[in-house]
Design goal:
Length: 70
């Protein structure tokens, strides 16, 4: 019974220990790294927006042809 309780308590202790080690290793990005990350995210947003717009632009006429024929 004591082994079960000990193993039940051990998992959260290891999780907290790993979390503290992770936070201690983290550091804030410097200005150039932050700008690179921001640019990559902006390019991703623009790319996904363009793809979505093109798909919608193609989908509307095809949908009108299919639904209009019925």
């Amino acid at each position: 019974m004591a082994d079960q309780i000990e193993s039940f308590v051990e998992v959260p202790k290891e999780f907290v220990k790993d979390g503290v080690q992770f936070i201690n290793k983290c550091q804030k990005p410097d200005k150039s790294e932050f700008l690179k990350i921001s640019q990559a995210i902006a390019i991703g947003f623009l790319t996904m927006g363009t793809v979505g717009y093109v798909v919608k632009l193609i989908h509307i006429p095809i949908n009108n042809i299919l639904v209009g024929a019925a």
